[in-house]
């Protein structure tokens, strides 16, 4: 992999600056929680379903506590307190709250040690369910095997989950390794998770736990048929980011789009809300053995791919550090980038190759997610197919991990089954014929490719050092990423951010940190001389 002679000291300095940026944000978000985090705690306890008006029960309970002005202690505090006194299950308790038969804040408060013991039991039970799904995945991969990297990643997006299941199985038979169900347009901006199977959606299908279950079952059937484990991907972002992470963990999803910055930049979700939610969602993804995909490729849809290439690399460094703080292993960090340089630019292929090889060398263990050309696809399907072929060639040359296949009908319509088949055949042909080409070539020292890589790294380092000085929030306000400016107090979802009060309790965060070896946050147990470990 060490084909480009790039300065290891600059890489180390960039990683150090990104680490400080992430640590500063982590200290800030460690004092806060969100309504989505608290709803996730309830879902991990087993709370599911809707009330008589169709409102999800996790929302009902969290809204109840927020209206009482006590959510700053954490939903778990009040729920565990009620369960100790009233018995029953978290589900039954939530149903009683929804029916107006229980006010959680009116019950006497139990001793802290008693709360802790019961809370730890619930956390262990919930996370053991997640662990069982991870063990099941490992068993199936061992029995059936899986595709070789770069994984062939394709999308289905009909709006009807039952049609998605049919198309997903078809894609598996055609050779896909990962099937992603694009989420319905706008779902990232609603502050609840729809319930049950859905048969309509605009530009995609709603992400619900039942939809996850249906797709997982379909792909397992296809995997057994073709003798290859098929990975399922969905979108873990937006205002319900950690809830979707929990649902995906419980239904054995394998890949989740989970970026620390995407929602801020491209959906105008408040930066505080997104950064708090991503920390907890990544803890869940990490423990579930889920590979995350980050969204740096989207930067190049609003900014020029040549001029702004360094912002992609800088963001990869930052996303890597946020992932590390949440306990994700490098093998789970599908850091994103894209093949988006104007095809009319002379030597554009060399610049694309430089960027891909640079990312590969800096993040050697990460299953990098490489995105196809989209910005300059014109509807000329013949030229588009060639653009996709060049993209596939860069991928196999540089050892990318996840290849989201380009469709020659990009910019025309949602791909048909036969469009997807042609895309898979294109990638299979190139990957097979050039499988070991990267091992046989070297880049000319001081040549165009190496010089471009050095330039991108140098500019990324300079940017990271500036962000380290001013802080990530200020950098986002200045529009340093994707040429998009956001305010720390603007965007959607800010009202769902709360300060953790003295006594705040989240047994799932405590248990996750213990299980993956992360340090405990200073908080409820530490303030009282108790130790979660």
User: Count the helices. How many?
Assistant: 20
Please state how the strands of the largest beta sheet are arranged side by side: 7-6-5-4-3-2-10-9-8
- Rounded Rg: 23 Å
Q: Stretches where pLDDT falls below 50 for ≥5 residues?
A: 524-533
Dominant shape: globular
Largest sheet: 9 strands, parallel
Query: What class do helices, strands and sheet pairing give?
Result: alpha/beta
What is the number of strand segments? 11
Helix residue percentage? 40-55%
GO molecular function: catalytic activity; cobalamin binding
Domain D-Lysine 5,6-aminomutase alpha subunit: 4-510
InterPro entries: Cbl-dep_enz_cat, Lys-AminoMut_A, Lys-AminoMut_asu_sf
Protein name: D-lysine 5,6-aminomutase subunit alpha
Explain what this protein looks like in three dimensions:
This protein has 533 residues and is α/β, with parallel strands linked by helices. The chain is 52% helix and 7% strand. The chain contains 20 helices and 11 strands. The chain has a domain of 92 residues. The relative contact order is 0.14. Helix 14 packs across helix 17. This is D-lysine 5,6-aminomutase subunit alpha.
Could you provide a short overview of the structure?
The protein has 533 residues and is an alpha/beta fold. Helices cover 52% and strands 7% of the residues.
Key features of this structure:
alpha/beta; D-lysine 5,6-aminomutase subunit alpha; disordered C terminus; 11 strands; Lys-AminoMut_A; 533 residues; two-stranded antiparallel ribbon
List the helices and strands and how they pair.
Blueprint: H1 8-29, E1 32-34, H2 35-45, H3 57-67, H4 75-86, H5 90-98, H6 112-144, E2 151-156, H7 161-174, E3 178-181, H8 209-226, E4 231-235, H9 241-250, E5 255-257, H10 262-267, H11 271-288, E6 291-293, H12 299-302, H13 309-325, E7 333-334, E8 336-338, H14 348-362, E9 369-371, H15 381-398, E10 402-404, H16 417-433, H17 448-470, H18 472-478, E11 497-499, H19 507-516, H20 524-527
Parallel strand pairs: 2-3, 2-10, 3-4, 4-5, 5-6, 6-7, 8-9, 9-10
Antiparallel strand pairs: 1-11
Helix pairs in contact: 1-13, 1-17, 2-3, 2-9, 3-5, 4-6, 6-19, 7-8, 7-16, 9-11, 11-19, 13-17, 14-15, 14-17, 15-16
